[in-house]
């Protein structure tokens, strides 16, 4: 206490590093001593192969304080000029209800949770996601919906792949796209079609009548706002057994006949305008709905209703057997991280407003549009639309003047069409805004009066929606959408769901390969600054200078960290990054006349998204073996690479490996593949074990994605958002994704887009930016070192109780370790699932279960977990081991013990009868710390099989909860 103030304290700089990193210097010493290393440096030398170790410090500058960094970023943000937007094109200004803004978007109880792999401690967000599905089902008029995809463009691309899987028209290889779909959607779909080898025809919608297709894509209302008659076209496609997808808008569907009623098989779109800010492109949730009979082919995650071991209704992720970890290259899609937080926001928006509120919002939007149309008519301007909901386009000779006047008033219109101006209305616009628009279109003194125009519309009952397209069916009739309309009730509903979920604000979430580190509040604050939140992704680039500067800076930092030459910020998740990276590899080979190179080598230990992405990129997967120590079997790799040499496209390899080990032979692996003319794709999910000590570029890889939502502090949001930018060496840089609406740098316009927005989910990039700025080069390296220290500390302490599956040189693990439950299972009958569920009784979220090895748990503590928490976790694991011993010894029968019965609920505790051979106390308060900081799972163990056999993916009635 009595130490004098040091100079560095006066500068107040490394303050944040010490708060991001859990263990302090003394604790680190204790941990080092436990594992037998003298210093962090010594540990790194013992752990990381010498031939990949980088000793120079990264050129990232010094750590800075939170105050400094936030004021620096504020100054950058202020270079964004946020105009009033009428651009539309799939992105609309919206009022995020404040109760949702503060209690969901800005609330760590919601944003720090993980994908609900452990449903017993995730019933809150599962219920909210089920609401999302119900909302989409109701509004689209279809029978089943998933719980979010990454954006509208990729949802449409998924729909094309879905059409190919499910269409009975097996002889056609042609996919039709109406030319009045948003340009970015068309582009994303076309990019994907090329990789799949589908033919595509883009033409006026009617053209489909002359074609025999396996699938067709229409937009309703279309990109110009027209409510186009598409039933005949849908019927034609159905006649030839094709699958029709309709891109649509949820707000419009409150007023329009549904895609389901029009006969469509699939509806996709974005839920952005349901309360999620535009954020310069994302993150937003996309939706995907279809017919019940096609449900097993649905891409993405589906929430289903099941029951728990006591027969109580409980929710879970359904049909996981369709997903990448099991089906790998045969999976329905490569979607892993989705957009859970944003789907939850949209669902809450619907819960908050209800059917009536949404109807009012939509009717206001339609009325404002009608008034605007009426005004144009008065002035002799005919709109191009036959019909409309919120968007109209009109031809004009005075486009230049109109655009100039709009600019002066800080208003953005849609102007990308020759001789045409289009405007899209939204819930934030008012009658005064229509007056302003008239001023812009006609100049002041136009004499138009909104009240008078409104009178004309009311008396003549003018509507942009033709009678035969008016919606008559009900929607959002479920009680959840009709209960929580006062702010008090809404607040309590949000809180009641939050209480059911275990997130990082309760305890450590040691999910291996997921890097659940601190998402510091300072990192989150800029996300909701209006300068960042309210920017339209297609706003003129000179208005987005703040964003551009922030993105460029982050680019430069990531280049320094990865050792690559260029970065693309477009992919919205790690899996999308894989897809974009493989696409670049493919284009590179093509550019050299090597189009035949289409084999992708993937070690058997790889994450499931790797083979799924390779399949999407039109590659053939050849699996290479791992040896007994979990390392890539070099002989097998050499053999297989040689066998396919002429056709070798690339290898996908994770480093450190998914087994949590720095493989010694990584450089050799790169050399073998390069030697046969292949490229190296290094999955960067494990970058948290590389930053500052090595880098993919230095190791010899050609391209990687970075999960900014793992290593670089973007919170997981309960299963998204994420960002998966890719880094590439210079020879791949010309093949990075471009964008059809906003040109990116000097990239070739022919390069297709992989996301709907040019810089992906740009709105969450400030999080990673702030993290790097706060940590500086030294802090980042320290984070890596402590992450490795912490994993080795856990491995060391638990190794006396459980086998640790794989280790590298000097018996060290990287940033995570695998605990093998299989021997215990063999001797006691207790499973890895039992251990995972029992951890809940101790107040912990389970580690990653059965990935990458079935029957194991993979633990990744990260640098952020304080030693006391790490110790508590270790003690819980040791206590659980003692419980397993009791089962093994026969003290507790296998059918009735605290492990098999876990998790225990409050309801278990309060049963009058207690007929178990262990006490209630042991059931729910197995340790003092569990008692002091109890987390109550709200349901007992959930029956997965029952849920998949009896698949229900819509909201159950309130009564069924009571049963
Ligand atoms: C998380 C992860 C991915 C997928 O990333 P998403 O962002 O979830 O799509 C890929 N590979 C590995 C090794 C991962 O851990």
Q: How is the secondary structure organized here?
A:
Layout: H1 7-11, H2 15-20, H3 25-35, H4 40-47, H5 66-77, E1 84-85, H6 98-105, H7 108-111, H8 123-140, E2 144-145, H9 152-166, E3 174-178, H10 183-196, E4 199-203, E5 215-220, H11 231-239, E6 243-248, H12 250-253, H13 259-262, E7 266-270, E8 286-290, E9 302-307, E10 313-318, H14 324-327, H15 340-378, E11 391-395, H16 399-408, E12 411-412, E13 420-424, H17 431-442, H18 450-460, H19 487-498, H20 521-524, H21 530-533, H22 545-562, E14 566-568, H23 574-591, E15 599-603, H24 609-616, E16 620-624, H25 634-643, E17 648-654, H26 666-675, E18 679-683, H27 696-699, E19 703-705, E20 726-728, H28 765-798, E21 817-820, H29 822-828, H30 832-841, E22 848-849, E23 856-859, H31 867-889, H32 906-909, H33 920-924, H34 928-932, H35 944-949, H36 958-962
Parallel strand pairs: 1-12, 3-4, 3-5, 5-6, 6-7, 15-16, 15-17, 17-18, 18-19
Antiparallel strand pairs: 2-8, 7-8, 9-10, 11-13, 14-20, 19-20, 21-23, 22-23
Helix pairs in contact: 3-28, 4-28, 5-22, 5-28, 6-15, 6-19, 8-15, 9-10, 15-17, 15-18, 16-17, 22-28, 23-24, 28-31
Pyridoxal-5'-phosphate (PLP) is lined by residues 336-337, 513, 573-575, 607, 609, 654, 658, 683, 685, 707, 722, 724.
């Amino acid at each position: 206490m009595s130490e004098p103030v040091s100079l560095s304290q006066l500068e107040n700089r490394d303050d944040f590093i010490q708060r991001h990193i859990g263990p302090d210097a003394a604790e680190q010493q204790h941990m080092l001593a436990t594992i037998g290393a003298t210093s962090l440096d010594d540990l790194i030398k013992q752990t990381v192969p010498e031939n990949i170790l980088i000793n120079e410090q990264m050129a990232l500058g010094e750590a800075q304080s939170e105050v400094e960094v936030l004021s620096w970023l504020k100054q950058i943000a202020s270079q964004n000029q946020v105009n009033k937007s009428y651009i539309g094109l799939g992105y609309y200004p919206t009022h995020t209800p404040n109760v949702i803004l503060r209690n969901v978007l800005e609330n760590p109880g919601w944003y720090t949770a993980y994908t609900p792999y452990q449903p017993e401690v995730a019933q809150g967000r599962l219920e909210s996601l089920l609401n999302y599905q119900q909302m989409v089902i109701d509004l689209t008029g279809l029978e089943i919906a998933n719980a979010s995809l990454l954006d509208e463009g990729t949802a449409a691309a998924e729909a094309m792949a879905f059409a190919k899987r499910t269409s009975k028209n097996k002889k056609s290889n042609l996919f039709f796209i109406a030319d009045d779909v948003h340009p970015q959607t068309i582009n994303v779909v076309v990019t994907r079609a090329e990789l799949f080898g589908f033919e595509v025809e883009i033409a006026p919608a009617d053209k489909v009548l002359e074609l025999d297709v396996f699938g067709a894509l229409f937009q309703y209302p279309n990109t110009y706002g027209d409510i186009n008659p598409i039933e005949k076209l849908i019927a034609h496609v159905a006649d030839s057994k094709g699958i029709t997808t309709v891109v649509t808008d949820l707000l419009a569907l409150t007023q329009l006949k549904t895609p389901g009623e029009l006969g469509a098989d699939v509806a996709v779109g974005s839920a952005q305008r349901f309360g999620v800010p535009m954020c310069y492109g994302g993150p937003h949730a996309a939706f995907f709905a279809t017919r019940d009979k096609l449900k097993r082919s649905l891409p993405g995650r589906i929430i289903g209703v099941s029951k728990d071991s006591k027969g109580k209704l409980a929710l879970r992720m359904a049909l996981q057997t369709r997903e990448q970890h099991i089906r790998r290259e045969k999976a329905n899609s490569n979607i892993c991280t989705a957009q859970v937080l944003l789907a939850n926001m949209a669902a809450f928006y619907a819960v908050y407003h209800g059917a009536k509120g949404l109807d009012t919002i939509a009717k206001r939007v339609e009325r404002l549009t009608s008034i605007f149309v009426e005004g144009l008519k008065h002035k002799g301007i005919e709109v191009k639309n036959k019909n409309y909901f919120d968007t109209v386009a009109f031809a004009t000779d005075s486009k230049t003047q109109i655009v100039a006047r709009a600019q002066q008033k800080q208003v953005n219109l849609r102007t990308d069409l020759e001789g045409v101006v289009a405007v899209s209305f939204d819930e934030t616009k008012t009658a005064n805004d229509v007056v302003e628009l008239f001023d812009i279109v006609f100049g002041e003194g136009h004499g138009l009066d909104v009240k008078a125009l409104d009178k004309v519309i009311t008396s003549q009952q003018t509507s942009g929606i033709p009678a035969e397209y008016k919606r008559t069916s009900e929607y959002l009739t479920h009680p959840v959408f009709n209960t929580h309309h006062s702010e008090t009730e809404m607040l309590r509903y949000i809180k009641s769901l939050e209480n059911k979920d275990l997130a990082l604000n309760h305890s450590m979430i040691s999910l291996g390969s997921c890097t659940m580190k601190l998402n510091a509040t300072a990192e989150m604050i800029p996300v909701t600054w209006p300068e960042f939140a309210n920017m339209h992704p297609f706003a003129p680039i000179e208005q987005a200078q703040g964003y551009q500067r922030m993105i460029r800076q982050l680019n430069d930092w990531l280049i320094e960290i990865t050792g690559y030459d260029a970065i693309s910020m477009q992919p919205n998740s790690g899996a999308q990054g894989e897809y974009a990276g493989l696409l670049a590899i493919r284009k590179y080979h093509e550019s050299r006349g090597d189009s035949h190179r289409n084999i992708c080598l993937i070690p058997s230990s790889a994450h499931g998204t790797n083979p799924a992405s390779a399949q999407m990129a039109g590659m053939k997967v050849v699996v290479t073996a791992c040896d007994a120590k979990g390392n890539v079997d070099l002989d097998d790799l050499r053999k297989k690479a040689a066998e396919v040499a002429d056709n070798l496209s690339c290898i996908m390899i994770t480093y450190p490996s998914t087994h949590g080990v720095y493989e010694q032979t990584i450089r050799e692996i790169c050399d073998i593949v390069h030697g046969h003319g292949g490229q190296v794709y290094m999955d960067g999910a494990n970058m948290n074990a590389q930053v500052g000590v090595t880098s993919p570029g230095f190791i010899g890889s050609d391209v990687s994605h970075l999960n900014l939502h793992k290593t670089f502090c973007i919170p997981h949001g309960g299963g998204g958002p994420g960002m998966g930018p890719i880094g590439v060496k210079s020879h791949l840089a010309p093949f990075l994704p471009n964008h059809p609406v906003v040109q990116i740098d000097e990239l070739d316009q022919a390069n297709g887009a992989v996301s709907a927005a040019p810089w992906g989910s740009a709105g969450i990039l400030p999080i990673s930016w702030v993290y790097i700025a706060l940590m500086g080069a030294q802090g980042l390296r320290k984070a890596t070192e402590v992450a490795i220290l912490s994993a080795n500390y856990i491995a060391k302490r638990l190794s006396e109780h459980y086998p640790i599956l794989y280790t590298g040189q000097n018996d060290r693990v990287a940033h995570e370790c695998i605990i093998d439950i299989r021997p215990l299972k063999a001797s006691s009958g207790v499973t890895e699932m039992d251990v995972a569920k029992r951890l809940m009784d101790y107040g912990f979220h389970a580690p990653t279960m059965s990935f990458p090895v079935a029957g194991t748990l993979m633990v990744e503590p990260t640098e952020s977990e304080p030693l006391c928490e790490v110790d508590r976790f270790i003690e819980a694991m040791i206590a659980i081991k003692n419980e397993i011993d009791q089962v093994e010894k026969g003290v507790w029968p296998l059918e009735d013990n605290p492990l098999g019965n876990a998790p225990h609920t409050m309801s278990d505790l309060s049963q009058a009868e207690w007929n178990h051979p262990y006490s209630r106390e042991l059931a729910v308060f197995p340790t003092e710390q569990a008692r002091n900081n109890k987390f109550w799972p709200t349901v007992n163990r959930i029956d997965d099989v029952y849920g998949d056999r009896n698949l229900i993916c819509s909201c159950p009635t309130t009564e069924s909860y009571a049963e």
